[in-house]
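Let's practice the habit of predicting before peeking. Look at the sequence and jot down your guess about where helices and strands might fall. Then scroll down.
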Amino acid sequence: MENIFELFSSEIFYLFCFATIYFGAIIQSAVGFGFGISAAVLILFDPRLVPGTILVMGTFLASTNAIINFKKIYTKDLIISLCGRVLGALISLPLLLFTFGKESFLIIFAIILLIAVYFSAKKFNIIATAKNVFIASSLSGFMGTITGIGGPPMGIVYQNSKSLNVSATLNAFFSIGAFISVIMLMYADIIHLDDFYKSLLLLPAVILGIWTSKLQWINNYIDSRFKNVVLAICILTAVLIIIKFIIANI
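Done guessing? Here is the structure:
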């Protein structure tokens, strides 16, 4: 346990991180996004876990789910979204290097997210067209690289699609996109060896979350209430970001 204490503030905090990652892994595996909720919670207690540790674990989590559900992936959408992800990640890199206005971008992202949820709840149909997927994936790449929270824009654009195909496509998207972000942040000396050590210690939570997400009652629930689940995840993510912003500026 000594290694854990070196990387985490205490055994209790490690267990808290484990539970948070487990919860996020279930959502990510079942819906296709939602692991950002774990990032939004953990950043309130230890900002060092974001984006590095979250992105490393997210890469493994999404890759595993993409392989499991490979045949259900929307190939055309995946190609378009990856182009947007790369663009968003490239735009975000200077911001990370100079840390200029990062908190401001977070609060703007949260507000935009809440507005999108409002219009979605008002029956404003958002369709996953090529243009919309590209815009959403660019925003996802931008915010995902900065904060480890890149899922909600993609969830919004796919809210009216079939849950099984969306989950497979988004996990494939995030597996490749998160890997690109990890490489870029390693090059920028933002992700370090400690991030990989922490990810390794928390890996059992990810594996357990993937297994839990395959339970039939979870799949049935997600499939019958997909849009509501997507909007709920987006609201929770936005609220957590706003809380972080308020705490950082007190």
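How did you do? The chain has one domain: 9-248.
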